[in-house]
Structure formats: structure tokens, C-alpha cells
Design a protein that fits this description.
Structural class: alpha/beta
Number of helices: 10
Mean pLDDT: 88
Radius of gyration: 17 Å
Strand content: 5-15%
Order of helices and strands: HEEHEHEHEHHHEHEHH
Length: 256
């Protein structure tokens, strides 16, 4: 089992170590999100899957670091860390902006490290080749807060605490800037399977948007739709965990 270096511990959080795991699921948060967003998923996941969540710079215990500048730059840094955690198969789960980051990490793993991810789970995000920007990062602070309230993706305790929000907004704005200025650079298709996930009433990402991820792999593609909006994961935690674990533990993926 790999042992994290000091640098690894900045980037990756392992809430529930699984010494008998057969696959490691790396989770990438949404814009403004943190690794702790995936604590409930880690808590409920099958014992055969070890969940590790990425902590982006500029938030929580990394709040003194500069915020994210670009999706590709962020992916490159995470890729460097993940190459030290390849003692077992790796799967990637990204939500919203995190899906774009996970996609770019998957490309690096395949093209530069020769590592084929067990799967890429792309949640609540339009396909990379379908660029869309709502220019949220250019709004004033009140506008960004209104967007967060609309999507209900940030802890209501933070939205109601002006002091906490003042500290969080630079990282949130940086994330939105990175997500909205991201441009897909055409290249080889991924070879790993992709599973697209979304909420049926998401006001930002339609089911058709999620289905577009099929164009980015030469492997299999599956589409899973859940009741709920952009942050359907909260109410549909059990169903999402079952979808992920069933897919990863299948004989087709792990040979078990």
C-alpha cells in the first residue's frame, strides 16, 4: 500500500482506509467544493473500494494558497500526485467542474503514464467538447452568492455566515473562472469506460449534456439519471454509491 508524502497529504484525503480494497476511487469536487463533500460517499462505499477525495488549493486547510488558475494546470498537479498511488486500479469520479478535472487527469494517466483507469464517472457536467460559460466568475460577490444559493451546492451555514463566506469567495471565484475558461483540446479518445450521471431537474446541465460524454471514449458508455437538481448527490447518495460500486466490482472491470 502506498504511503502519502507530505505533498500527497495536501492533495488527497482518505476518510475511511480500506486495507482490502481492490480499486481506489479518486473524487474531484465541484467549483467551490472541498474534499469533505465526498465524506458521505466514502462512508457508504463498499469495502472493496477505497475512496480518496481531492482537496483543491485555496480552501479550508489550504486557504492560504493561491486559488485554482486552470483546469489543465490543476489536472497536471493532481496527476503527478496520483502516479504514486497506482498500486491498485484507479477510478475517477468528478462532479461539475470536478468532472472536467477528472477527464483531464484521465487523459494524462492514459497518454503519459500508460495507466488505464477502471472508469471515469462524470457527474453533473456537460461533455468537454460542449463548451458553455455562464460567466459566473465575472459577477460581483452578491451575484456569485446568488448562484450558489440557486444551485444549493454550498453549505447553508457558510452562506449564512458572512465572515466565512468572505474567506471562501476567492477560491469559489477562482474555481468558476477555471471551469468557465476551460477549453477542450482535441486528442485521442479515452479508452476507459465513462459513466455519465446527472439530475433530471438540473437547471445548468441537461440529461442530453451528460449524454455527450459518450463521444469522449472508445470504451463503453453508460448514462445514469437520478431525481434531483445539480446537487442530486445529496438526496441520492445511496443510489449513486450503488451505481458506482456495482460498476466497479463487476467482473468486467476488476476480473473478480
Amino acid at each position: 500500500m502506498a504511503s502519502p508524502t507530505r505533498d500527497d497529504s495536501l492533495w488527497l484525503r482518505r476518510f475511511h482506509p480500506q486495507p482490502d480494497a481492490k480499486v481506489r476511487l479518486i473524487c474531484f469536487p465541484h467549483a467551490g467544493g472541498s474534499a469533505s463533500f465526498f465524506f458521505p460517499m466514502s462512508e457508504e462505499m463498499s469495502s472493496g473500494i477505497e475512496v480518496m477525495a481531492v482537496q483543491y488549493p485555496g480552501r479550508q486547510d489550504r486557504r492560504t494558497e493561491p486559488p485554482v488558475e486552470s483546469v489543465q494546470g490543476l489536472a497536471r498537479e493532481i496527476f503527478t500526485v496520483l502516479t504514486r498511488w497506482t498500486d491498485m486500479p484507479i477510478a475517477l469520479f468528478g462532479h461539475s467542474m470536478g468532472a472536467s478535472v477528472a477527464f483531464e487527469v484521465a487523459r494524462l494517466l492514459e497518454q503519459e503514464a500508460g495507466i488505464l483507469p477502471a472508469a471515469l464517472f462524470a457527474s453533473g457536467r456537460n461533455a468537454p467538447s460542449q463548451h458553455r460559460s455562464n460567466e459566473i466568475h465575472q459577477l460581483d460577490d452578491d451575484g456569485i452568492v446568488a448562484e450558489l444559493q440557486r444551485l444549493s451546492g454550498t453549505d447553508s451555514r457558510i452562506l449564512g455566515d458572512l465572515e466565512l463566506l468572505r474567506f471562501a469567495l476567492p477560491a469559489i471565484r477562482g474555481d468558476y473562472r477555471a471551469a468557465e475558461t476551460y477549453r477542450y483540446v482535441p486528442g485521442p479518445l479515452l479508452r476507459c469506460p465513462i459513466v455519465g450521471l446527472g439530475g433530471d431537474s438540473d437547471i445548468r446541465v441537461t440529461v442530453d449534456d451528460v449524454a455527450g460524454w459518450a463521444d469522449h471514449t472508445s470504451g463503453t458508455f453508460e448514462l445514469q439519471v437520478f431525481p434531483g437538481g445539480h446537487f442530486y448527490l445529496g438526496d441520492q447518495k445511496a443510489a449513486v454509491v450503488n451505481t458506482v460500486s456495482d460498476f466497479l466490482i463487476s467482473a468486467r472491470q476488476l476480473g473478480s
